[in-house]
Design goal:
This protein is of the alpha/beta class. It is built from 15 helices and 16 strands. The chain has an eight-stranded mixed β-sheet with strand order 5-4-8-1-9-10-2-11, with helices on both faces. The longest helix has 36 residues. The termini are far apart. The N terminus is likely disordered.
Length: 523
């Protein structure tokens, strides 16, 4: 039988004892908590009803929040898939873990959260999207998608080779996860299971069972959908516009496949994305999309009608993909409840970053602006951890690894740059001394969507961004009065004192996190 480090033994048990002093309530047993970490791709807070109920209902994600906490100010360090995942696993910013962009390879030999948990007696499993251009390390079990993976009939990489499965990827990842929980783990030992979904990544393909959903819904157009980017040069030069045929592809993204219509991305859609479907899947797909295709080409839309039609199609397809993901999260919750595991399991749900749902006229992420820097973060907590409701403090994805270690009672290495969120979950935090600012650095340029390299600082009220490399532009936003970040205040006399204070804080963070950019672009 596995012998656990005494540090591993349920660090929150002592808090339960204190909470029950003066009553006859028995203390919780000292046993390690399991961790289920569910991460989706490009799921944004605007499309999760516990954050924003204008567009869609997500009852199962809301179940997690209702059984624990919702973080109102959770953010990422680098809003792009691979780097965000590296930040999760290492608790370090991109310049420290080496995964700067989606093209660099993650070094799996470095210190990771799963390595430390495994060393302390936890079983570790990784199922789904990995996207780090290397094989997983220090997992007892892993089965991952190659690259972005496919929505239909996906291939998975295993230690034994590659296997193709029939079906829809979100269902398959959940099936694998439940099979591991039921059949492949040692049920007497604690575990950390990473369930990483491909959903809701571009090109937003719903399950055939959900294709008819949301077709009668007209989604609210963001107030800044027709943003003209005045005073924001970097925002004007991106390639992530919904209205642009180059940026949002008519065939790949909107599924308007038709003989003789060729677009920048149509070949991949016709030959692989759609082409990999079996006959039954294609029949269901065509039954839904063909009438829409016929109506679209007959309408010959132009101008604003064209742009807003694209927006509605994007929103509907995205929402369908969310629906399937939420249903599958519900399957995991149902399993844990049916097997009496909710009281010894912490469930964490988040995304690798946020996403634009038409704000500024965009889709995708990358910018330090709120929609893409933010991420949903909710946690189910066992009943002996009494904290419930919203948590307003600034948190970041480098905090996830130290939080898992702290939950497990494992010592947090000194070189981890994030901080444990456990004090926020147990009301043992000195809120006056919690961090007051966050550091962000995005590197992937030139690349798809052509978002300029930039770094910056976000405080509770302000955000200062420096776009650099082939450009030298600063932006300043007052988030209290301009949460949509439409008015760049940098250079205005009345904000000079605020600007200088933010630059000092930015410099302090670059020194604290040892970002070498401070040598190339001294403040």
């Amino acid at each position: 039988m596995q012998h656990f480090n005494t540090k591993l033994l349920y660090p929150i048990a002592g808090m339960a004892v204190l909470a029950s002093c003066g009553s006859s309530q028995k203390a919780e047993p000292t046993k390690p908590l399991n961790i289920v970490y569910i991460m989706t791709d490009d799921h944004t807070r605007q499309m999760m009803s516990s954050y924003d109920d204008r567009h869609i209902q997500t009852p199962n994600l809301d179940r997690i929040a209702e059984g624990g906490v919702l973080f109102n100010n959770a953010f990422v360090c680098n809003s792009i898939s691979g780097p965000s995942r590296a930040c999760l696993l290492t608790g370090k910013h991109s310049h420290k873990n080496g995964k700067l962009d989606n093209h660099t390879t993650f070094d799996g030999d470095q210190q990771t959260v799963q390595q430390l948990l495994k060393g302390a007696g936890y079983q570790t499993a990784m199922i789904g999207k990995w996207h780090l251009d290397s094989e997983p390390t220090n997992f007892d079990f892993w089965e991952i998608l190659p690259g972005q993976g496919d929505y239909y009939n996906p291939v998975f990489i295993t230690p034994q080779g590659r296997t193709q499965y029939d079906g829809y990827v979100t269902n398959i990842i959940t099936d694998m996860s439940l099979d591991w929980l039921e059949n492949k783990r040692k049920k007497e030992d604690p575990f950390c299971l990473f369930i990483h979904h491909k959903a809701i990544h571009r090109n937003w393909m719903g399950d055939t069972l959900d294709l008819a959903l949301f077709e009668d819904k007209t989604f609210e157009l963001p107030h800044n959908f027709y943003d003209n980017y005045e005073g924001r040069i970097a925002a004007a030069e991106q390639e992530m516009s919904i209205a642009s045929n180059h940026d949002m592809d008519l065939v790949n993204d909107l599924k308007m496949m038709r003989e003789g219509v060729e677009t920048r991305l149509s070949g991949g859609y016709v030959n692989n994305t759609y082409g990999r479907m079996n006959e039954a899947q294609k029949a269901a797909w065509d039954k839904h999309y063909q009438p829409i295709i016929d109506e679209f080409y007959a309408a010959n839309l132009q101008g604003k009608e064209w742009a807003e039609w694209k927006y509605q199609r994007y929103m509907r397809d995205y929402a369908k993909t969310v629906k399937s993901m939420d249903d599958n999260v519900g399957r995991v919750l149902d399993y844990l409840e049916a097997n009496d595991m909710m009281e010894n399991t912490i469930i964490i749900y988040t995304s690798d970053q946020g996403f634009y749902m038409g704000e500024h006229g965009w889709f995708d992420k990358r910018f330090m602006y709120e929609e893409s820097m933010s991420t949903p973060l909710v946690m189910h907590l066992p009943s002996h951890i009494k904290k419930r409701g919203d948590i307003p403090q600034l948190v970041q994805n480098i905090d996830f690894a130290p939080t898992m270690l702290d939950i497990a009672g494992v010592e947090i290495p000194a070189d981890i740059q994030g901080v444990s969120l456990l004090p926020l979950l147990t009301d043992k935090v000195d809120k006056d001394n919690w961090r007051k600012s966050l550091y962000y650095h995005y590197y992937e340029f030139p690349a798809e969507h052509m978002v300029k390299r930039h770094y910056g600082v976000r405080t509770e009220r302000y955000k200062l961004i420096h776009f650099y490399n082939d450009i030298d532009v600063w932006e300043l936003y007052d988030l209290k009065n301009d949460i949509s970040e439409m008015h760049n205040l940098y250079g205005q006399t009345e904000y000079e004192e605020v600007t200088q204070e933010l630059k000092r804080e930015l410099k302090r963070l670059q020194e604290q996190y040892d970002d070498p950019i401070r040598e190339e672009y001294p403040l």
